[in-house]
Amino acid sequence: MGGSPVSFDAAQSGGTAAADGRPNLQHAYLLVHEPSKDGSLSAPGAQLFKLDFQFNPKELQLAKQATWKREQAKGNKKASPPQFTGSQPSKLTLELFFDASAKQDSTVVKNVEQLFSLTVPTEASMTSKKASPPWVIFRWGGLTGFLAYVSQVQAKYTLFTASGLPIRATCQVTLEELSGDAPKQNPTSGGLVPHRVHQVIAGDTLPAIAYREYGVPALWRSIAVVNDVDDPMRLRPGRRLLLPPLEEITEGSASRAAR
Predict the structure, then answer these.
(1) Is the pLDDT assigned to residue 56 strictly greater than 80?
(2) What is the pLDDT of residues 170-181, one digit of tens each?
(3) According to the UniProt entry, where is the signal peptide (predicted)?
(4) Using 50, 70 and 90 to split pLDDT, how confident is the model at 195?
(5) In whole angstroms, what is the distance from residue 68 CA to residue 82 CA?
(6) Cα separation of 94 and 207, whole Å?
(7) Once rounded to an integer, what is the mean pLDDT over residues 141-154?
(8) Which residue in 186, 161, 183 sits closest to 247, CA to CA?
(9) Of 13, 22, 80, 149, which residue is the least packed, with the fewest Cβ within 10 Å?
(10) Contact at 8 Å (CB) between 198 and 237?
(11) Is 32 in contact with 116 (CB distance < 8 Å)?
(12) Angle at 227 between CA 221 and CA 230, to 5 degrees
């Protein structure tokens, strides 16, 4: 799932062919998985369900943003060249259309509720105290999206029965990539990317914060060292923790191992 935001598999590009030689219509769908138990992005957890699109999207909108920094010096007549500090996760926005005007049943409502369920933590992750939303993968024929989570759902009901039951809806869904590019050193000065700051909320633990930040719960020790935390399981709500970049953590681990 790494590399480009959406990959095209040539082996699947043609799909299956009908008797007249024309390719069969392939519907888009979302594969919904449990998050991996160890935080690894290489293999999602068990598949929860497959969400089939009733109609294929008319368009797909991809977004990728890089972060740049310009050094400002008093008296300079020209702006300094931008310096790359990292990349933001890729985002895929698509539109789903549901229609039950022929049956006039609750299918549309159930489909919309299923979409909204993708924006909250799974029961299994809540039970293990590692609250995480479902992991999803968008697929359409030979088009395969990145491993992501649903960051936003907007639903608009546009048709109702005489009793007020919604039977038609348009939904806009945003998928956000689970893993972005690792932070890099400043290419000119060699300085590391500044630490992010996390404000502790009730129920937070260092392993849970490490899982959300790096995808690896075991990296909580590095956060503890930076912030002089004695008990990783007891954090005072409101405390601000510095979160070092992943590159800084891995380089520090390699350095200690070499000694």
Answers:
(1) yes
(2) 999 999 998 744
(3) none
(4) low
(5) 6
(6) 33
(7) 86
(8) 183
(9) 22
(10) no
(11) no
(12) 65
CA gap 195, 240 in Å, rounded: 12
Helix (H/G/I), strand (E/B), else coil: 217: helix
Burial class (CB in 10 A: 0-12, 13-18, 19+), 12: middle
Q: Which CATH class for the 196-258 domain?
A: alpha beta
- For 200-233, what is each residue's pLDDT tens digit? 888 888 988 888 877 788 888 888 888 888 887 7
DSSP letter (8 states) at residue 80: P
Q: Which of 31, 43, 47 is nearest to 138 (CA)?
A: 31
| Mean pLDDT, range 26-50, rounded to an integer | 85
List Cβ neighbours of 35 (8 Å cut-off, separation of 6 or more). 44, 45, 122, 125, 130, 132, 133, 134, 135
CA 159 to mean position of chain CA atoms = 32
- Say how many residues make up the chain: 259
No. of helices (H) and no. of strands (E), the chain: 5, 13
Instruction: Tell whether domain 6-16+24-177 is in CATH 3.30.200.20.
Output: no
Model confidence, pTM: 0.59
Q: What residue spans define the domains of the chain?
A: 6-16+24-177, 196-258
pLDDT given for residue 258 in this prediction: 42
Query: How many whole angstroms separate alpha carbon 149 and alpha carbon 72?
Result: 37
Residues 247/185, Cβ–Cβ less than 8 Å: yes
Minimal CA–CA distance to 207: which of 195, 222, 218, 196? 218
Q: Which residue intervals of the chain are DSSP H helices?
A: 107-117, 123-127, 206-214, 220-227, 246-258
Terminal-residue alpha carbon distance, the chain: 35
